[in-house]
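Human
Can I borrow your eye for a moment on a structure tokenisation matter? Give me a protein, with the fold worked out from its sequence. Write it directly below this note and I will take it from there.

Assistant
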Amino acid sequence: MKNLRFSSWNYAKKYFVGLSCVTVLAAASFIAKPVLADTVETEPTNTSEILMTTNQSQPSTDVETVTPPTTETSLNTLKTELGSQASNGTSEDTVPQAVSSNSEVPATSSADSYTGGDNVSVSAKNNLVTSESKGYHSDEQGNWYYADGNGNKLTGAQIIDSVKVYFDENGIQVKGNFASDGHYYDKDSGAMLTKRYVEVAGNWYYVDGNGNKLIGAQTVDSVKVYFDENGVQVKGAFAPAKESIFSPDRHYYDKDSGALVTNRYVEVDGNWYYVDENGRMLTGYHTIDGVEVYFSEYDGHQAKGEFSGNGDTGDFYDWDSGARITGKEGTPKFIKTRSGHWYYLNEKGNQVTSIQIIDGNIYYFGLPTKKYYYGMQSRGELVYAYYSDFIPNSSRIYYTNPETGAAWKNRYVDWEGSRYYMGPEGYALIGEAVVNGQSVYFHRDGKQARGELITENGVTRYYAPDSGVRVRNTKLTIDGVTYSFNADGDGTIISD
């Protein structure tokens, strides 16, 4: 190819024109330089006043998004033109270095970035935002970032256009949640909020003038409220939770408003409580609205369908109203406690014990085996009853009906591998007896003899293993000894 050369005058003229343009544009660039100044401030360590913008949305019109000055475009254009002209000259003709250096921009790998708006690339790998301008940018997932003048994502607490915001370790702006600095940032604008209630995942918090969560008992807008150790407002429960349930200083806070409740009954987890004029939980015996009531000394719940003392002792309180029943005259009645146990109150409202005849049936209250509380009705059990002053021959063995507790009569009972027979009086037979026309025998503990030789008053008799009926008119060898039993069942040894 034929080399072309410029005359020295033409070359000097073109170089002079180019140099003049560079000089003018460089001066313009120097004047425009303040436009590129970074408007982002790092949050000061001591802040006495909280700055809030609650109606800000992203990207905010208040946030300055700086675009490159037109001088840079002119330089690029000039570079192109001069480069084109130089290509027509010798290889020694080059564009001045000052022009080419102003055309550089940060670059990111397209494989590790994604577009977040017009001409914006948000890098997930190197924490850079490559854009024609600094400012707020979003990604395809709807996350917001802020890029500084070098394309770096901001992280941590920042102040942008006088608004306090926060970006996590990945540069994502925190919105609608508490950041790692303990402050809450608005779900729309991302601005740090102060002096207001905020909700996160169904829990309510209150942030003070510095944006910090309130903890413990507080008064907010003249309303007494409480926040637990995590800052969550207590609603529909007693606080402080860390206090012992024996503590009288536990207060109840309304399930809707969270306000301290006073002078009323409150329900928590199916139990009823009463809080006084100071909002404190009552315990022990009280008369409220003319009704005698009792609140557990242990946890303060109102006694309903239960006794006031330990082990179902003391006074009994009505299932519905919680009013004391025992000690008040009225109609005798059976009562059932919350624990499922049955008792009987007489006409004076007092709890009965031991053997009782009620409506012609025998009942037992209070087991000497201490399997249950004293005075508790026995149901579905074999009872070894002690003597009662009210019932003759009451030191007997009874079996109580599983449904009603009344003693069974005239029937066999199998209990723990042994068989008993409850006679017409409701107690177990003992000794020789005739049941359903059959001669049988019961030991002193009421257990029927089956497959056994019984000798009484010098007479030996044998009772069949299955039925327990006395054998008659037969010969049997028992333990190597042969017996002959006559028509009455009396046995005689015939060989050994």
